[in-house]
Amino acid sequence: MPWLSLAGFALALLAAGPAPDPIPSAAPAQSATAPSAAPAQSATVSSAAPTRGQSAAERLHRKGVHCMDEIERPECAIESFEALLDEDTRQRELVTDGLLRLLTLYRRLDREDDIAPLLRRYWEAGGGRRSAGHVPYSLRYLPSELNMMINVDPPRVLASSMLQRGGDDLRDFLFTCDDALRHDVEMRQRWRRSARLAAETGRQTWEVFYEKVDAEAERDRKRKEREARRTEEERERDRPPLMMEVACPLVDALELRDNADWRRMSGIGHHRERDKNVAIFELAELETKLAAAVAAGRLLPDGPGRWRLPEQVEGFEDDGRELRLVSLDLDELLVAPQALLGPIIEASRKRKRRMNRELERLVDGVPRDTVMFMALNQAALRELGFGEMERRSLRSVLEAVLPRPKGLQIAAIVGDSAALFTRVPTDAAVRGRMLVTVANALLARSAEDDAETAKWIEDLDVAEASDRKALLMSYVLSAARLEEILWD
Prior knowledge:
- There is one protein chain.
- By secondary structure, the chain is an alpha+beta fold.
- Helices cover 47% and strands 14% of the residues.
- The chain is built from 19 helices and twelve strands.
- The chain has a twelve-stranded antiparallel beta sheet with strand order 4-5-6-7-3-2-1-8-9-10-12-11, sandwiched between helices.
- The longest helix is centred in the middle third of the chain and has 24 residues.
- It is globular and about 65 Å long.
- It starts with 5 loop residues before the first helix and ends with a helix.
């Protein structure tokens, strides 16, 4: 299913683990990397004393952090952070940090029953204000037929304490454009985990390591068999968005270290038509870097204020689909097929907003402090959800029974903990409640039948929003669980 597979990308962005242990010389060699420091996302203070000019949200957050980190009084911290979630404030970063800290505190005090209600408050906490400024300005000029969006905020990923604990290996695995470096990281981490398992089971490290390598090879073989049975149309439809395919060629052209250098990465497209796909990258001092790239021949001029890559991205070689680059706002680089670019530039010149209004409302409803978010409008979600069904009778029944979705919002946040939140706005509250009941019953049955399934869904919560206008799903990921996703 196109684009929805990006939930896996979200999990990768949330990934974290402890710093790698030393490994024996038999392990794959390490590639040289340069560390990238980033300020911690969570604010810390040395005193709970109020400061003149602070808002109520800032005072509550400051007191909660002081109680949690300085004087180690969890009940005091919980009281402050719970009050913070009730504040009507635009300072959403403080609210989300308080929510993540509450998650940690509830677990520390074995208050597991309080976690699910806490997670369900994510979309409404802070007063439920619409977000602004968390997407590129150029987005407003894109065609209305573009109905899906993904947005990644590398600085927030780098600033998270979970990623910092993961060290350079995790950073490089997520952001490098060097496939050899990513392979080295993966093999080194797999060796480390194999050594740990071997010590626990009394086996040789190489024995455990190559057992996992063989299992992965078998999974790859089955994936290739499934891929061979797919039609060319299916393969084309399920390719990743333009943002993910053009990012590394632009990294090379602008002489960046890797994708962590982008201030923001956004991909906007149509859920079926690949030639209707746009990417926007934000980068400090973009104009200077563009001039240097043109002077060195890494970018080629294509008219006033327009450029192209020396080599086209695969799948965009045909006339009208060839990619062009343009900067419509400060430090924003927009990449689009040539056929789309003219109308986008014209809309920018006339300051005419063209973005799909449904998608815009969904995007504005996503809190601005996410490390990643994704949104689909109603038409895209409906077709992706039911469009592949061959039996029209079954499709009709399901559409009648299930709540009518107005779109889909997915948001990922990271601090000391990481969480993935999904929201499906709907205008059918009764059917929504029925679906929640059925979903929870099926999850409970799956957990009873399969211990492995139970392990993976124990942190999954499905519920109805308090205003009964949306279905909610939240999933909390631990560092250990994410290590399994990445390295096993």
